[in-house]
Amino acid sequence: MNLFKRILIPTDGSEYTKAAIAKGLELAKLMDAEVTALYVVDQTSFINFPMDSTMVSVYSLLEREGKEAVEYVKSEGEKIGVKVEAVVEEGSPVRKIVDASKNHDLIVMGTLGRTGISKLLLGSVAERVVRYAACPVFVVRAMREESQ
C-alpha cells in the first residue's frame, strides 16, 4: 500500500536542505510518488521597507535564488526518475508550506536553513510546520560542517 503519493519538499536553497532533498527524493522513488519542490520568497522581510530600486534588486535576487533552488530539486529528481514540479511563491514561508500541506501526503524538510540572530528572531520554520501542517512532516537534520 502506497501511503505517500504527493510529497512536498520545501527548500530555501541552502546547503543544509540538500540532505532533506536527497531523503525526500529517495522516498518518492520508493513510493512512486510525485514531488513538489517549493521555495517561498519571504515577503515578511520587506514589510517595513519602501520598494525602491534597492529593494527591487534584493527581491529579484531572492526570486532568482528560488528558481535555482527548485530547479536543483527538479534536476536531482530527474537523475533518479522522480517527477518534480518546481514552484516559487511569495509570502510567509510557514504559511505557504502549511497551506500546501493540505494537498500533499508528506512534507520532507531540513533544519538549519537559518542560523544565529535570524533564527532567534524568526523561530524555526520546521518547528512551526510540524506544529500546523495538515500532513505528516519528516524533518531531516543536516550536519553542520564544523561537526563533521
How would you describe this structure to a colleague?
The longest helix is centred in the middle third of the chain and has 28 residues, at 53-80. Helix 2 (53-80) links the parallel strand 2 and strand 3. Strands 3-2-1-4-5 form a five-stranded parallel beta sheet, sandwiched between helices. It has five helices and five strands; from the N terminus they run E-H-E-H-E-H-E-H-H-E. It has a single domain (6-147), classed as Rossmann fold. It has 148 residues and is α/β, with parallel strands linked by helices.
Q: How many strands in all?
A: 5
Task: Please summarize the sheet with the most strands.
Answer: 5 strands, parallel
Principal-axes shape call: globular
- Give the strand order, joined by hyphens, for the main sheet: 3-2-1-4-5
Secondary structure category: alpha/beta
Summed up, the domain count is: 1
- The H/E string reads EHEHEHEHHE
Q: Please state the CA-atom Rg, rounded to the nearest Å.
A: 15 Å
Q: Can you give the mean pLDDT?
A: 85
Q: Summarize the amount of helix as a percent range.
A: 40-55%
The CATH topology is what?
A: Rossmann fold
The fraction of residues in strands falls at: 15-25%
Low-confidence stretches: none
